[in-house]
Design goal:
single chain, about 300 residues, mainly alpha, Serine Threonine Protein Phosphatase 5, Tetratricopeptide repeat, 2 domains, two-stranded antiparallel sheet, 13 helices
């Protein structure tokens, strides 16, 4: 069975989400306008630590051609919606409502931003907000910091959909984002949502080929291991857990999560000594972690 694609909010045709490891932020408009050399503008990228995501801020290059008004930069209007209202007002209304716990009220504002034909940040946001960052939860174990703009709105919208129990729409939006922005932080978020729905085969396919390069990869690998064990591919799951635990430089909480799930798999396979070793390692770091104390006690009987 292949991936099942859901339909939700449609991204505008003029928006390209550029969140590759070397990319920078939201780029909108015609292809030619995105060329910093042709347009006489430079791009400053603000990296999101640990994710590879960048937020791009543009400005006029020194030595570029002056405007017809004696050197003054021509005014660039804000991006507006169909009613003429500045799209940035929907962005900030949606984000503030979401942060205040009003997800249902935030959703219509954020949908306006995500479905707009042009992306944020616009010129006004770049001028008054600059490189300000927004923290967005991606999974229960991962929060990323991303620049104010259409990508941030989309990630907050996913969280709001999930909070309102609209998981299918959250999954659909993430799938569409991945089509235009194949970044692993989106893969991690989608793996989490699919796991909540017990769509294990979809998780297996989505996580295929992941290697342990950073904490985001580690999360994807754990979801992959859980999924593989749920589709009776235990040997493959053990291989994935070995990859997940090969580096001690990863986040300690994520490593405990990986080791605990491997221990449960080892126990189910009847490998009590190996399960005991993993449970003991988790217990040594956090005696209150899940049911690890009870698991160890049962193994000692």
């Amino acid at each position: 069975m292949g991936m099942r694609f859901r339909k939700s909010v449609r991204l505008g045709p003029g928006v390209r989400l550029n969140v590759s490891n070397t990319g920078g932020g939201i780029l909108a408009g015609a292809e030619g306008a995105r060329d910093p050399v042709q347009s006489g503008r430079t791009t400053t990228s603000v990296r999101v630590l640990g994710t590879g995501v960048c937020h791009a801020k543009s400005g006029t290059r020194s030595g570029s051609r002056s405007s017809p008004q004696g050197g003054a930069s021509p005014p660039t209007p804000a991006v507006v919606d169909a009613t003429g209202k500045a799209l940035s007002s929907d962005f900030f209304a949606g984000v503030l409502l979401a942060q205040s716990g009003c997800a249902a009220q935030a959703i219509p504002h954020l949908e306006q931003v995500v479905s707009a034909s042009r992306g944020l940040p616009d010129a006004l946001m770049e001028r008054y907000v600059g490189s300000a960052q927004l923290s967005v939860p991606i999974t229960p174990q991962l929060t990323v910091t991303v620049g104010m703009g259409s990508l941030a709105a989309a990630l907050v919208l996913v969280a709001c959909y999930q909070e309102q129990g609209r998981v299918e729409e959250a999954v659909g939006l993430l799938q569409q984002l991945l089509e235009v922005a194949p970044h692993k932080l989106l893969v991690a978020s989608l793996c989490e949502l699919l796991s909540l729905q017990h769509e294990w085969q979809e998780v297996v396919e989505l996580a295929a080929g992941t290697t342990n390069a950073d904490d985001i990869d580690l999360q994807i690998l754990v979801y992959q291991g859980i999924a593989l064990s749920n589709v009776a591919c235990d040997a493959a799951a053990l291989v994935v857990y070995r990859e997940a635990l090969k580096s001690k430089k990863r986040d300690a909480a994520l490593l405990r999560w990986a080791r605990y799930n491997r221990a449960k798999l080892q126990l189910r396979l009847g490998r009590k000594a190996r399960a005991r070793a993993d449970f003991a390692a988790v217990y040594a770091e956090d005696p209150r972690y899940a049911d690890v104390a009870a698991q160890l006690e049962a193994l000692e009987l």
